[in-house]
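Lab notebook, entry 545. We have the chain sequence and a SMILES string for flavin-adenine dinucleotide, and the next step in the workflow is to get a structural model of the bound complex before anyone spends time on docking refinements. Request logged below.

Task: model protein plus flavin-adenine dinucleotide, output structure tokens.
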Amino acid sequence: MTYNPPISDMSFLLEHVTGFRNLPHAEELDPETVDAILAEAAKLASDVLAPLNKTGDEHGNILKNGAVTTTPGFKEAYRQYCAGGWNAVPFPNEFDGQGLPWSLAFPIQEMWQGANLSFGLCPLLNQGAVDAILEHGSEEQKAYYLPKLISGEWTGTMNLTEPQAGSDLAAVKTKAEPAKDGTYKVFGQKIYITYGEHDMSENIIHLVLARLPNAPEGVKGISLFIVPKFLEDGTRNDVICTGLEHKLGIHASPTCTMQFGDQGGATGFLVGEAHQGLKYMFTMMNNARLSVGLQGVAIAERALQHAEHYARERVQGKGLSSGESVTIDHHPDVQRMLLTMKALTMAGRAMAYDASVYLDQARAGDEAAQIQVDLLTPIIKSWCTDMACEVASIGVQIHGGMGFVEETGAAQYYRDARILPIYEGTNGIQANDLLFRKILRDQGAALTSFYTDIKKTLADNVQAAEIFAHLDDVLSMIKLNKDLENLAFIAVPLLNGLGVLKGAEMMTKMASANDKYNDLSDFYMRNILPRARMSFDVVYLNLKT
Ligand SMILES: Cc1cc2nc3c(=O)[nH]c(=O)nc-3n(C[C@H](O)[C@H](O)[C@H](O)COP(=O)(O)OP(=O)(O)OC[C@H]3O[C@@H](n4cnc5c(N)ncnc54)[C@H](O)[C@@H]3O)c2cc1C
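Result returned:
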């Protein structure tokens, strides 16, 4: 069973549901051009990347003497991906990017992730590195690194995590000592570094969090450094991969232990100002968080397609009314499962694409749009990745025993999806970010504008009206509550409820733009929207007054 990128749903969302058409840079992209770009990406995704998904899962990567050989086929697939200019899609023309909107890059990136999550991780991390250098690098750094990171000749990584510093980056210990020539010597160990070492590109540019001597304690003492695998004169830098993780899923993505400075210090170059590293790294992480949410949508779609295909073929039992042998897609419970998968996936896709339009507006200087991006980022990262695990799990269920054995591939989606709620800040951390930084810091102002829009769209929905009334009460209680521990306890259910409401808004917009989506939207309102009520009930019942 291959992967068919859902390009008609994708272009429908862009053209008729999100604000894509109102973006100034969408003017040069008529609907035919958009469709042609999506169709071209779909070919690479389904013909080249998707067939490598299962083999990559089975083979994984090999580490020998510090060098990682990627799974068979990845190197050539990466060459084709770069040759097609796909790595450059959303980046500025000034550095040889294609200058296309993020809102067009999102469906394209969804295809890489849906075809092959392990492959898609390499460009995902690279994108974060490009963004960090674009935003905070010096002119020389931009001129030297960006064209090659954008073409894909080089790839970028994100080196935050250390054994004692995961969610808590204040605990980072990696050191950077100033050298006489204005560079730095970096010493330390980073773990879980995605594509920290591989054979697909000529050079690997590590963005590394480290502390300068006498740096203040905690997050205020962390700086950001560029540490290339190969230096400008071609010499090998003092950074090496010393281990590869054995993981539950994404086997073809090398997850590396990176050792810096065992041979006298890895040469590093400071990005921006000293001690501002964490702030800069958040540029990378915020971007990556939305993209991880998109990974959730992508793997959910893949699991859905697989389950639909299997349910159409597998004959089991008799129809309740006909008494005839039927394929399992005739059983109401299987239909319910398939519709749940589809409704969650479409809602997730629509909200991720909606956020990408805000992202384009924000990058054009629209501050109100930036506030929406900030609010939506933890919701999309968390809701779409939890949703992906649920959808992939239902996919296994639809396959029955065949879902639990590896043969069909349904199990791989389930295993692969499981990382998504963990990396790029666990979903618990996202919920804290949403509640404390995005909602309470401005006393709910951003949230009010977020859900005023949703209220407008759902104005005719009686069920939603009750949920909003309940949410209003809950939010008033939250604003009055000064017990931080109690608030943190309800952050996840609050985020989940808001995600469900955002999904309902998008479903309603889809159905009003094209009645083809009416049934799916109705299904969502009957079967998914009640989860919002339950989430806010949970918040309410747990809040101390
Ligand atoms: C396959 C894979 C790829 C990765 N790729 C990269 C990479 O490229 N670069 C990189 O730097 N890192 C990477 N990571 C690391 C990843 O981002 C971390 O694993 C993640 O942020 C969680 O950190 P941790 O594993 O230390 O878990 P911990 O921080 O120990 O968390 C354990 C549990 O405690 C909870 N918790 C911890 N602190 C809090 C808190 N303050 N409030 C509420 N709950 C809390 C968490 O939500 C979680 O449920 C990767 C990890 C994996 C597994």
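Notes for the group: The chain has three domains: 7-154, 155-278, 427-545. Worth checking against the assay data. The mean pLDDT is 96.
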